[in-house]
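Exercise 7. Given the encoded structure of a 133-residue chain, write a plausible sequence.
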């Protein structure tokens, strides 16, 4: 009696995942209709979540403008589009270069371009630490 393994060439190495002599094939290469439909449904749910949840997840803006020359790290982070790394850069710039003179000095900080500057401009002002505006 011959075994099923004698049907294949003895010199050919057996590969994992390859089709066997009994006709069991490897995993299908193309997704079937059910998995495509599931992927489409998941994509639609994610899109709806992002559409409706994005405003709720948005950062709450400061209730009053902040003074660039006395602001803390936390106050900088309250600004739109300003995260921890950018807030650190703003503080480092102020420590290295001295007080901000015009608000436009923010544009000298790496990562603050005109677009970002326009978003945060209504929420910042300059008042020198010794007084005056």
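Solution.
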């Amino acid at each position: 009696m011959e075994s099923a393994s004698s049907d294949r060439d003895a010199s050919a190495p057996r590969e994992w995942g390859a089709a066997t002599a009994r006709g069991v094939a490897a995993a299908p290469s193309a997704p079937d209709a059910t998995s495509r439909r599931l992927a489409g449904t998941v994509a639609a749910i994610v899109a709806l979540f992002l559409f409706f949840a994005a405003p709720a997840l948005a950062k709450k803006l400061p209730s009053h403008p902040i003074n660039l020359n006395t602001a803390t790290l936390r106050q900088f982070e309250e600004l739109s589009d300003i995260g921890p790394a950018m807030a650190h850069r703003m503080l480092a710039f102020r420590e290295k270069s001295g007080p901000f003179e015009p608000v436009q000095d923010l544009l000298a900080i790496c990562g603050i371009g005109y677009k970002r500057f326009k978003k945060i401009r209504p929420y910042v002002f300059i008042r020198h630490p010794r007084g005056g505006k």
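Remark. The first helix runs from residue 33 to 57. Students should compare their own answers with the one above.
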